[in-house]
Design goal:
The protein is mainly beta. The protein folds into two domains: 115 residues; 110 residues, Lipocalin (Beta Barrel). It is built from three helices and 19 strands. It has a nine-stranded antiparallel beta sheet, covered by helices on one side. It has an eight-stranded antiparallel β-barrel with strand order 10-12-13-14-15-17-18-19. Strand 17 and strand 18 form a beta hairpin.
Length: 235
């Protein structure tokens, strides 16, 4: 549906990325062509688009038809007011008057009008840290049962993960997508160990997976695809 909105208020709100992320926004895009516009996506709730030319759209994320691969995402939805297409390409992009460099090129098409700009996933900056594994589910991780305590080091800016599984060193690429972390293939050394490791969990539930995360009492919780939970404390 088409709704009315205060575009100037939305433009101002979009500058506060921390508040947006905390309010549930996973993806933010903005542009200047053909007029100032902003797109916000909450993967668990709502897609909102507003532009200075008066266009304002709001619809549920689960209404979108999705076509995704490593290089691009295309989301489409047919509304009573017209057809919407959101195209997100993996391409370095700059909104000239903003000056920020984004990693996504974004085009929003409504009927015959294309709104061009740039976008990025938002992320909780608290992820940027070294994290020691404290519990697997309700089971505490006991130091003397491992050669070394399993640890992950997350770098949001560089999009990298490093650390160890209790035995072998691990590393790989990641993309934080709002409240989720997309893990690409995780590589590890092949040293033999005579104690426990979380190698099987890393291989089956983290490597190549999209994992939800949240913070509670200052600790990082990873909610894995098999509904298991890993709890980490900051080093």
């Amino acid at each position: 549906m088409v709704t009315s909105a205060s575009n100037s208020n939305n433009m101002q709100q979009a500058k506060d990325l921390k508040n947006l992320q905390q309010s549930g926004i996973d993806f933010l895009a903005e542009g200047k062509q053909p007029s100032n516009w902003i797109l916000t996506i909450n993967y668990d709730d709502t897609v909102r688009f507003t532009a200075d030319d008066g266009l304002a759209l709001k619809f549920a994320y689960n209404q979108l038809k999705k076509d995704e691969n490593e290089e691009r995402r295309i989301f489409t939805v047919a509304l009573k007011s017209g057809n919407v297409s959101i195209k997100i390409n993996e391409k370095i992009c700059t909104v000239t008057t903003i000056g920020e460099v984004f990693k996504k090129e974004v085009n929003v098409v409504f009927n015959n009008t294309t709104y061009s700009g740039c976008g990025k996933f938002l992320a909780d900056e608290n992820l940027n840290a070294k994290w020691l594994l404290e519990k697997i589910g309700n089971t505490p991780v006991v130091k003397n049962e491992y050669n070394r305590l399993p640890q992950i080091n997350i770098n949001i800016v560089e999009g990298t993960l490093s650390g160890n599984d209790g035995c072998n060193s691990i590393r790989g690429k990641i993309e934080v997508q709002g409240k989720r972390i997309k893990f690409y293939q995780i590589l590890s050394t092949k040293m033999g160990c005579n104690k426990k490791s979380i190698e099987k969990i890393v291989t089956a539930q983290i490597s190549g997976q999209i994992v939800s995360y949240y913070f509670k009492d200052g600790k990082l919780h990873l909610y894995l695809p098999d509904d298991s939970l890993m709890i980490f404390k900051k080093v």
